């Protein structure tokens, strides 16, 4: 390392220690979020930031440093820990906090995450995808002409659904299951894309007829941009294309919601990527709809693994940011939300970014709040058109809010009680929650459910 680099680093450490001595929580948090190795640094006489914050009685800085994983057992050149220092200078609450076994650190604020998988709406897998069959053209073709095979139909990415008359008040929608003869005409049209979804898991459908060939009931989905109503042979009333999919897709039953998210995301990819993104040439649909192969000889997309050939999934972090006091959470609203709704902050993960860093960046960008520990909770495929919402809890290490008005309209800390009211009191609450099928709702409920005595 050159002397210039050395002095730049020394200067940064000195500044960090100075902020800790003066109790500047925002500056300390921002520096840690950029250079976490600062937590290990010490200055004159081996004093760390934790020791300096303890010396000067800055409880919030001590907490933030510990939440970020600072080692409280380090000693200075006089052999004192941060705890010894806090005690010596009479900051009893800090000494008590440092001697407690770190309860108020990560585990204290975050609900415990018992490693069970948390199921969200859209996440249930009703079908076995059988990806090995996607290249078996003979098998796919036999299944497409089998009378047991189920076809679901989309028009401009809206699924054809049906509802029972007695359920009309609060309709639970079902996918309309077409047989091969009903969709024959539509499949033959040149703009129609057909994809293979999978086969029914045997245990899910004990009453279904069993296919004669191999006992597997295959499902296919198709999308067309020309209204297919005339050519489809529909035998029931109360059946229609589900236009304005959001929020109406949330009325699907849970088993079929998982099928729709798979089908709609892949079909949306086909409708947006008609040509090769590498050379602009024509492509053909391969692998049961899970690949588009460029037809231009020598195209770079044909060499090695090329991700433009495969359907895309866009990872999005969505996070419930918890206040360091463990009793409030940060929610925000976009201008486009219906009046009164506040939700978890969210944002697309960028290339080369971890889930944790995306959470920290998006929260800082949108609300100005610095985040320390991040814990994964659950995820949700989201068919608008192909996001994977990655739900996390995160602990704030600074609490002042400065909203980026380009992204969101408002962000606030809500108390546990306000959140409980929003969940149970509806109109009398100070704000509204997103619908129960959204992972934002799930995260909030999970936080309340685990930590409260409800
Ligand atoms: N904010 C919420 O409460 C919430 C809740 C549920 C679902 N979602 C979904 O999460 C997604 C991301 O949230 P956000 O809009 O706040 O993200 P964001 O904060 O990253 O901001 C969105 C902006 O990011 C850019 N962007 C970067 N990568 C993109 C990509 N792959 N696709 C589209 N735009 C991209 C675009 O300019 C876009 O306007 C949205 O699609 C939204 O439907 C958000
Ligand atoms: Mg953002
Ligand atoms: Mg956002
Ligand atoms: Mg973003
Ligand atoms: Zn190409």
What is this entry, summarized?
This protein has helices at residues 3-22, 25-34, 49-55, 59-67, 82-88, 92-99, 106-109, 137-144, 180-188, 245-248, 254-272, 355-367, 416-424, 439-451, and strands spanning 127-128, 150-155, 158-162, 174-175, 193-200, 218-224, 239-241, 283-286, 291-294, 314-322, 328-333, 345-348, 371-382, 387-396, 410-415. The protein is an alpha+beta fold and 454 residues long.
Fold and architecture overview:
This protein is of the alpha+beta class and 454 residues long. The chain has three domains: 3-104, Serine Threonine Protein Phosphatase 5, Tetratricopeptide repeat (Alpha Horseshoe); 127-272, Nucleoside Triphosphate Pyrophosphohydrolase, CATH 3.90.79; 314-451, Nucleoside Triphosphate Pyrophosphohydrolase. It is 31% helix and 19% strand. The protein contains 14 helices and 15 strands. The strands form three sheets. Strands 1, 2, 3, 4, 5, 6 and 7 form a seven-stranded mixed sheet that branches. Helix 1 (3-22) packs parallel to helix 3, helix 2 runs parallel beside helix 4 (59-67) and helix 5 packs antiparallel against helix 6. The longest helix is centred in the N-terminal third of the chain and has 20 residues, at 3-22. The radius of gyration is 28 Å and the shape is elongated. The termini are far apart. The mean pLDDT is 89. It binds nicotinamide-adenine-dinucleotide, magnesium ion (MG) (3 copies) and zinc ion. Zinc ion binds at residues 276, 278-279, 281, 294, 296, 299, 301. Residues 347-348, 362 line the site of one magnesium ion. Homodimer. Homodimerization is essential for its catalytic activity and protein stability. Interacts (via ANK repeats) with BLMH. One of its GO terms (molecular function) is metal ion binding.
């Amino acid at each position: 390392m050159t002397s210039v680099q050395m002095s730049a680093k020394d200067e940064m450490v000195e500044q960090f220690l100075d902020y800790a001595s003066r109790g500047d929580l925002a500056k300390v948090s921002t520096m840690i979020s950029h250079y976490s190795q600062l937590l290990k640094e010490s200055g004159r006489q081996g004093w760390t930031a934790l020791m300096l914050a303890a010396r000067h009685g800055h409880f919030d800085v001590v907490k933030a440093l510990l939440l970020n994983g600072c080692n409280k057992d380090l000693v200075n050149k006089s052999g004192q820990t941060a705890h010894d220092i806090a005690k010596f200078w009479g900051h009893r609450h800090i000494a008590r906090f440092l001697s407690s076994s770190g309860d108020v650190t990560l585990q204290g604020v975050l609900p415990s995450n018992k490693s069970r998988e948390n199921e969200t709406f859209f996440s249930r897998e009703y079908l076995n995808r059988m990806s090995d069959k996607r290249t078996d053209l003979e098998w796919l073709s036999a299944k497409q002409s089998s009378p047991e095979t189920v076809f679901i139909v989309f028009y401009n990415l809206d699924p054809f659904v049906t509802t029972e008359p007695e359920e009309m008040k609060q309709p639970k929608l079902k996918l309309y299951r077409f047989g091969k003869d009903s969709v024959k005409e539509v499949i033959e049209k040149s703009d129609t894309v057909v994809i293979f979804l999978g086969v029914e898991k045997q245990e899910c459908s004990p009453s279904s007829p069993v296919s004669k060939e191999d006992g597997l009931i295959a499902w296919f989905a198709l999308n067309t941009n020309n209204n297919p109503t005339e050519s489809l042979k529909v035998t029931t009333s109360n059946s229609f294309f589900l236009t304005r999919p959001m929020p109406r897709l949330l009325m699907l039953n849970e088993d079929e919601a998982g099928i729709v998210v798979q089908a709609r995301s892949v079909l949306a990819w086909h409708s947006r990527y008609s040509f090769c993104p590498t050379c602009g040439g024509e492509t053909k649909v391969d692998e049961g709809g899970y690949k588009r192969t460029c037809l231009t000889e020598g195209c770079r997309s044909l060499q090695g693994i090329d991700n433009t050939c495969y359907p895309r999934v866009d990872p999005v972090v969505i996070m419930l940011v918890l206040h360091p006091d463990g009793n409030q959470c940060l929610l925000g609203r976009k201008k486009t939300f219906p009046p009164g709704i506040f939700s978890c902050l969210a944002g697309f993960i960028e290339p080369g970014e971890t889930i944790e860093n995306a959470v920290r960046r998006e929260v800082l960008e949108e609300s100005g709040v610095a985040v320390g520990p991040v814990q994964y909770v659950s995820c949700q495929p989201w068919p608008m058109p192909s996001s994977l919402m990655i739900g996390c809890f995160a602990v704030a290490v600074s609490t002042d809010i400065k909203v980026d008005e380009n992204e969101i309209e408002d962000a606030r800390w809500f108390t546990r009680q306000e959140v409980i009211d929003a969940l149970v009191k509806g109109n009398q609450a100070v704000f509204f929650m997103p619908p129960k099928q959204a992972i934002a709702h799930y995260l909030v409920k999970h936080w309340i459910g685990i930590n409260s005595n409800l």
